[in-house]
Amino acid sequence: MAETAEPRNSIRECVDENPGIHFNELVRSVSLATGQVQYHMYSLIEEDEVDDFSLYGRTHYYPSEYPEENRGAVALLRRETAREVVVYLIENGESRPDEIADQLDIARSTLEWHLGRLVDQGLAEKERGPKNRVTVSPVDEERTVGMLSDISPSLPDRLVDRFVTMVDRLLEEPR
């Protein structure tokens, strides 16, 4: 029993400290074999100590007491580009998409992909104004800042996000 308690406690602790963590990041964080993490994670979910939540092709893990209404937003905020967009909106307020893309040095298509999900998760809103101009605004900044404080993305996650951004730039058509 002691053999299974230590890795399971390590996994549970990692999930507690990193709500919304996805499986690959969890495996890297606890330094256990993938199969071990799968085995213990299954048990933790069955025992209602950890909840799993799938969003946009990734499964994220949360302490069972973590607020359900924040799970999708936190999962999304674990992605560097989405997080940068939200921070930009909080710092600058209502902005046009082209301004955001230029300031963050990301492809417009990448921005739109993230904006769609940010709107879905209630972190941003898009509106059409005069002359049909689109603007983007943050939603419930206090809640968002609280969720941002719950996450601290790992170096591998940041590197993957940066690689995807680089590929998007290479594939983007010239403006």
What would you say this structure looks like, in words?
The chain is built from 9 helices and 5 strands, in the order αβααββααααββαα. It has 2 domains: 2-66, Arc Repressor Mutant, subunit A (Orthogonal Bundle); 74-171, Arc Repressor Mutant, subunit A (Orthogonal Bundle). The strands form 2 sheets. The protein has a 3-stranded antiparallel sheet, sandwiched between helices. Strands 4-5 form a two-stranded antiparallel ribbon. It has helices spanning 2-17, 23-30, 34-46, 68-77, 80-92, 97-104, 108-120, 141-150, 155-171, and strands at residues 21-22, 50-55, 58-63, 124-128, 134-138. It has 175 residues and is α+β, with helices and mostly antiparallel strands.
Instruction: Give the oligomeric state of the chains in this entry, treating copies of one chain as homo and distinct chains as hetero.
Output: single chain
Rg over C-alpha atoms, rounded to the nearest angstrom:
18 Å
- The tally of domains stands at 2
| Architecture per CATH nomenclature, i.e. the level-2 architecture of the largest domain | Orthogonal Bundle
Might you state the CATH topology name of the largest domain? Arc Repressor Mutant, subunit A
Secondary structure category: alpha+beta
User: How does the major sheet shape up?
Assistant: 3 strands, antiparallel
Number-wise, the strands total 5
CATH class of the largest domain: Mainly Alpha
CATH superfamily descriptor of the largest domain: Winged helix-like DNA-binding domain superfamily/Winged helix DNA-binding domain
> Residue share in helices?
55-70%
**Mean pLDDT over all positions:** 85
In which order are the strands of the major sheet placed? 1-3-2
The helix/strand series, from N terminus to C terminus, equals HEHHEEHHHHEEHH
Shape, per Cα inertia axes: elongated
